[in-house]
Amino acid sequence: MRHRVAGRTLGRKTNHRRAMFRNMAVSLFTHGQITTTLPKAKAVKPFVERLISAAKKGDLHARRRVIAALGGDQVMVKHDNDDDVVRNKYGEVVGGPKVVKHLFEEIAPTFADRSGGYTRIIRIGKHRIGDASDLCVLQLVRDEDTGPQLAGTRARRAKSNKRMEFAAKLAKSKPAAKEAPAEAAPAEDAGEEAKADE
Description:
Layout: H1 14-31, E1 33-37, H2 38-57, H3 60-69, E2 75-77, E3 85-87, E4 93-94, H4 97-110, E5 119-127, E6 134-140, H5 155-197
Antiparallel strand pairs: 1-6, 2-3, 3-4, 5-6
Helix pairs in contact: 2-3, 2-4
């Protein structure tokens, strides 16, 4: 019986659920929004908002609390080929100091005048294919102009930006290329008319 048992278990054991919350929080701080199911979004929202409230304090104790919440059993490991990364006891790379720095230096100052409600849940009206669960977007409440993404996290996004810049350059150079052959065409026609007259 569930007498006085609070919170959503989401069909997971405690360690699995905490790891899932950590992963979702790191993804949210990195990208600014995540797409997930409605129960997961409702369950992780208080966890994320507590981390942002701690980051707004900005002191050393708050920083250590955030690092512990994002994985207390993780240790800093320095490798020759890596920057500073955070690995768990199994050697897997998990959310590192780049995310914590981004949270304290870029995300928390934007919420300095807000006393809560740092995230919003938007239902997108789609269902997951496997179990038809309602999908939603959990996102940080930000100005639409500022991008919430952490710089340099996605190689695919960087490639896409390069393609867009290249396409823009091509679009600018095409009208000039089209005009040049159009001017040369009448001269060729005049030469053909001269041959026809002979």
